[in-house]
Amino acid sequence: MNAPWKPGGALRDPFHAFVCDDHSFDVLRAVAAEMGWAPEKVNKGGMRNAVQTLSITASPQILFVDMSESGDPLNDINSLAEVCEPGTVVIAAGQVNDVRLYRDLVASGIQDYLLKPFGADQLRDALAQAQAVFMAPRDTGPERPHCTMAVIGTRGGVGASSIATSLAWMLSDKKKRATALLDLDVHFGTNALALDLEPGRGLTDAIENPSRIDGLFIERAMVRASDTLAILSAEAPISQPMLTDGGAFYQLLEEFHTAFECSVIDLPRGMLIQHPHLMGDVNTALIVTELTLAAARDTIRILSWLKTNAPQARAVVVANKVQTGSPEISRKDFEQSIERKVDILIPFDLRVASQAAKLGKTLAEVAKGSKVGAACTALLNEALGSEDKDGDARPSGKGESLLNKIDLKGMLAARRKDKVASED
């Protein structure tokens, strides 16, 4: 059956069948036993039982379903597709001898349609062809390695979540890559809100029951923003602490590697302390900052942490909401303080930001044609940039202590001098 995402890691049975009559039931059980499959996987009940059963269990490699009691075969096949994992090969059977129906069913994604009553030889041939189809190598085009990006804000309010949603949207819309967006702010995350979506219980369920996490869980728990973008987030009650060792988050990221081409993690900076292992497979770390003294301090600290704890991650520094005029620290002074360049500078545009919030769209989508839009495109290209930028992507390593940062020390002194002068 066709479906947006690739199959996950759940262990799948080789065969299930759902039939309406005793003759089909007996023939299927006998042939299943011949092929080494469990006869008890042949069930009474047709399409309705199939949909109900597969909505709570993993779908098999080969599925046989009896449509004799179906009043609307094409609509029922679509309902079946909603609960089937991608890659499942479906054989249908029925009593309607109509070439047009057969063609419509095949176009809907089934492998074959058997007219009832069918014999054992006819069934064997259909199952053998289904096996061959399932085992055949799939032409998926050139294989691209999965890219995992983490977006980390240096301070609250710098707009890291806005950058994360924009990046995920651009990867899915502009680059046409199947993208997962994971919002790890379990209580106060805004990624779903920014996309005008209800967060659902997917992330909460994953934290509470990590053993449930598999390909089927991912397919059903994630909220789809489009055919190529899905989000996993939560809006947990603030009276309900989420106690976890981070294992659920790690398992989710493992499943994302199978089901998607790209993963974008909106990672609260506190997670670096609590769950540093989440950065183990991150390819690109985007540090979102503002041009302030506190943000410069924490950019230095986060860059140093990444160098020690996630050396494989290419760091990209993004200065967000940069206003014209005189910021607290100039870009030049900020870059001297962190001992590297700011890679992307996104200007502050109140009109674009307000419009994005009102429409429930990402900043990048609303900002097309503006300076903010051009900066977002540059951000996308930088995030997907080649690994040869690693050399200038991290701090020089002269020490994390602010006492070694001459510019910051000078700025602190200047700020005190200005304060005394204003009081005088």
Automatic annotation (TrEMBL):
SUPFAM superfamilies per the UniProt record, alphabetical: CheY-like, P-loop containing nucleoside triphosphate hydrolases
Keywords carried by this UniProt record: ATP-binding, Nucleotide-binding, Phosphoprotein
Classification via InterPro entries: CheY-like_superfamily (IPR011006), P-loop_NTPase (IPR027417), ParA/MinD_ATPase (IPR050625), Sig_transdc_resp-reg_receiver (IPR001789)
Keyword Iron-sulfur: no
Superkingdom: Bacteria
GO cellular component: cytoplasmic side of plasma membrane; cytosol
Every Response regulatory domain range: 16-131
Gene Ontology biological process: negative regulation of cell division; phosphorelay signal transduction system
Modification 4-aspartylphosphate occurs at: 66
Keyword Lipid metabolism belongs to the record: no
GO molecular function terms noted in the UniProt entry: ATP binding; ATP hydrolysis activity
UniProt protein name: Flp pilus assembly protein ATPase CpaE
Organism ancestry: Bacteria, Pseudomonadati, Pseudomonadota, Alphaproteobacteria, Sphingomonadales
